[in-house]
Request: fold
Amino acid sequence: MIIVVKPDATEAEVKRLIEMIESQNLSVNYSKGTERTVIGLIGDTATADLEKIQTNHIVDKVLRVQEPYKKANRLFHPDDTVIDVKGRKVGEGHISIIAGPCSVESEEQVVSIAKSIKASGATFLRGGAFKPRTSPYSFQGMGYEGLELLKIARRETGLPIVSELMSLEQLPAFEDVDIIQVGARNMQNFILLRELGKTNKPILLKRGMSATMKEFLMSAEYIMKEGNDNVILCERGIRTFETATRNTLDLSVIPVLKKKSHLPVIIDPSHATGLSWTVESMTKAAIAAGADGVMIEVHNNPEEALCDGEQSITPEQFDKIMTTVKKYAEIENKVL
Ligand code: PEP
Ligand code: MN
Reply:
């Protein structure tokens, strides 16, 4: 349930209203936006004393929220969420470019890629240390050592780092990772989501390959319910009948997510198609469709990559894409 507060209500009046609601065993989500101020009610609203709320003089209207996701719902937070990651902003007005190898393979590899993408204008460095591989015989990532190498690359370039956490026991090692990625395969690992919700880390939540938009937002809700509002949604392709591409990039989810939610939306064209030669066109399409950024796999030698070489582009190809991205950003009046 949403309470829209009259624009002339004072802070003290809003505070009193919130206390009255909380005394009914409901928790509230207060959002003072540029256009309107809303109080979202979370909990069993069936027992709420609606009349008492409705007749409060600062209440403009009370709306029922149909969707099961509340904190992730735009009704609860009319303004776009902008997440600050070490001074770099993700969300409204910004285009975030997360680039780097699928997996960290060596210091030389990750530092060299980091320097190249930084020079081209990337805003974050990605690199997998713990890799969710379909085959247990495939390279599983460098683990904790990989995280250390990422930190070296961050020191060399100043780029904040993004890496995937696969299980809770790894959490202490991610304390100094700037954005924690939850991979597609873990999108519904609810225990993991809940624990990440107790941290204040920005979380890049990837859409499960068979997850509906509603399920995707419910996973974001798991994190937000525990108090962590720093959730970035990442569409990375879904499973369809099509086999020409690794997955099918669901571009239409961008405007839908933007309408339903206030959270930033990032597109991963690399995992979406699995084909390096589509990354440029899908990046352009994503930004044109209103995405807040992209995550692109870049490798200095894709043919020799230990993971996802077929979808990885070279630093030179990345540089070319960035020239276009910068133009798009200018047209849309956004900053990188
Ligand atoms: C990745 O980003 O390297 C990755 C494994 O992604 P996904 O979870 O989307 O497959
Ligand atoms: Mn990958």
